[in-house]
Amino acid sequence: MNRSLSHFQDAFAGALYDADAASPLLDSLLAQPGFAVYRNNVVKACIDALQANFPSVERLVGSDWFRAAAAIYVRRQAPSDARLLYYGHDFPAFLDSFEPARELPYLANVARLDRLWTETHAAADEPGIDVVSLACLAPEALGRLTLPLRAAVRWQWFANQPAYTIWHCNREAVELPPELDWSGEGALLTRPEGAVQWRPLGTGGCAFLDACAASQTLDAAAQNALDAQPSLDFTQLLGDLIAAGAFAAIDVAPHGTL
Hints:
This is Putative DNA-binding domain-containing protein. This protein is about 55% helix and about 5% strand. The protein has helices at about 1-15, 25-30, 35-55, 55-60, 65-75, 90-95, 105-120, 130-135, 140-145, 165-170, 205-215, 220-230, 235-245; strands spanning about 155-160, 185-190, 195-200.
């Protein structure tokens, strides 16, 4: 009985997104007009969710183009989570290979930044680092420190594309600069006070956060950042990241030790 029910459920879900691949198990059900209405409602809900989750992409291409592309994606990739806020995790990869998007090579990266916004928005709350305790550490103890990142921190480097500028201008509904520098950019998204914030981040900053995420010590992570960007003012970077709320709370022992 359970096996039969499972087969029916799989066939039913498949028929919602691909009528041509419907199982013979559903012949009588598919013949009912109400099933087509239900299918259309389900697909529309998924398209609406993608439209809400990727607003910067929609602003770039327009609602009609976006919804047509989303309809194709929906029929290839059904939601795996009932919370449609999380739907579309691989929509950027879909845009990478979507032929009509070929003339917009930055579109998938704009979608990635929309996705990072969603992940930052939905991440768990965590207390931030105690800057006073951090400042009390002796230099050698500070260098051995591993700085954990808060769950709501996201970052990415986009080589050879001003993806961050294109994204944040469309996210904020402002005009792009008249002369756009077509070079690599990075982005940092945080949620220090309950609202998502974003800012540009250089290649050294991205390399530093990569190292922190890999649990490298502060000394090693700093060297990683300077190797990626030799001109980097690391003290300024660290202060900016702390101010942005990038780091989670840590236990710091008194008297400058860990």
